[in-house]
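Re-run with default settings, no changes from the original entry. Doing this only to confirm the output is reproducible before filing.
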Amino acid sequence: MRINWEKTLDDARKIFDAALRNVDPLTMMERCLSIEAGQLLIRTEYDQVRFDLADFERIIVMGMGKASARMALGVEKLLGDRLSGGLVVVKEGYAEKLARLTVVETSHPLPDRRSVRVGEDLSAMGQDLGERALVLVLLSGGGSALVCAPQSGISLEDKMITTGLLMARGATIQEINCVRKHLSKIKGGRLAKTLAPATVVTLIISDVIGDDLDAIASGPTVADPTTFADCLAIIGRYAIEGKIPLAVMKLLRQGAQGRAPETPKPGDTVFDRVKTLLIGTNRRALAAGEARAKELGYASMVLTSRLTGEAREAALFILGIGKDIASAGFPLKRPACVLLGGETTVTLRGNGRGGRNQELALAFLAALKRSPAHGRGLLLFSVATDGSDGPTDAAGAFASSGLLERARLAGLEPEPYLSNNDSYGFFNRCGGLIRTGPTRTNVCDIHILLVP
């Protein structure tokens, strides 16, 4: 069987593009928000709420995250001059032109001085609003780093070191955000406390496995079930206590002993006038990708939206599914498309460059090399929906036996690059990188396995 790799790769791109279009923040806002008889109506897959606009003297917008500017664009188009103003914080390159709202770009994945300044601005904006204010909080992935308001005694450098250590050890986003919340003045429900007694409506695009609302952008308006004791347990789990800044450890220990205020918990009265709505998920993207794959003639299925764990292990799991399809037509007959979503982790062992999707694709390629007969014809397309995979200009990478042959002809072997966590270096040399640029959305990662 002769495989048309160009067509297969093009099909993967079409499937991914369809998935991405279905989670475009502007499209989702236009689908969810409307004004009917003087009321703001918000409809989602899970809920429906109404707010009489005559009840409010001011409508303020606060946005945090990679998708928040495009979400804000939808709000501006609907509410227009009803808006009293607002502030939206995005990653560099993710801004939109807004007429009534201020957009600020800051740093991601690690915060910078701009992140601190804008955190102070949001805190100041949220004070003394009163009961006749309506605050629309637009949240998406990336908000935790983009807005940084350290607790008293904690410096930006302290937070950066702590976050960097957890990332390097392969901590999950939930674990990282648990610690972030307890080092912040606005995360972990503390922004809701600042905004009270205003009415707060939080609209969320999820980049977190399982869509845990308290973990997305570290839940600034959501009750926090985690504790200072949980933070200490996480740091102990990764054996980094001796590397964490002293000021951070002091605060966490004081909190665990009840000598520093906890984040607001479920049932706290600060959430009495807060409504939180989920409008965009990884599942929505996967469903659109599956539909497009069927249009292209593939037998298709969404396997999961909760793929987690080490990227290298996830690659072996996906390869195993591909081998079953290729050799036995199970669980799908060829041509087949299997879609998975989620967010894996990478434990740093070397000093190369890359991201979790590139590492997953490289591990897939290395395993494919060990059993070329069973893996012939498989193509894996692994991409971050936000267009940014690790500290690189790539969104991810693809892997196939065709690319493996191209690498072999160029004298490249995947194993040394994998050992050095240098997936970017490998794919940059053999042409496997996927570059999308900023997508202005963020619903975790998408992995597309094609068996032509």
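The chain has a mean pLDDT of 95. The two ends are 10 Å apart (CA to CA).
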